[in-house]
Amino acid sequence: MARYGRRIRLESVPSASEQAKVAAATINGKSRKIAALPWFWSDQYDLKLQIAGLNTGYDEVVLSGDPSGDRDFTCFYLRAGELVAADCINRPRDFVFSKRAITQQLHINRDELLLAGSA
């Protein structure tokens, strides 16, 4: 996967869709690499789990919310101050924000992450 500079096995619908686009390009003689941000979701009873990016190679985790409380929180993973992934539990707004911020490599204020989900 171009974004991570190595091959990665991802078993998800978004990943399968990206692979299909690469296969179609290859059949048509065009070179194309998977560059889309990996993302996943799953509903587990009353929990909505949503993941943007892969939480590998991070050097800091910013926790927004309280995992022991309402089961409504996000773990933001940063590398050198840049947001590289987010694990969102019952926080769809954080998930949408994280996907956009990671894809566009937006500068994120660490303190703002602490307040995420409370808006």
Automatic annotation (TrEMBL):
Using the record's annotation, list all stretches that form the Reductase C-terminal domain.
39-113
Give the Gene Ontology MF terms in alphabetical order.
oxidoreductase activity, acting on NAD(P)H
According to the UniProt record, one GO cellular component term is:
cytoplasm
The UniProt keyword set, sorted, is:
FAD, Flavoprotein, Oxidoreductase
Which co-factor is required? FAD
Q: Which InterPro entries match?
A: FAD-oxidoreductase/Apoptosis (IPR050446), FAD/NAD-linked_Rdtase_dimer_sf (IPR016156), Reductase_C (IPR028202)
Q: What is this protein called?
A: NAD/ferredoxin-dependent reductase-like protein
Q: Which organism is it from?
A: Nocardia puris
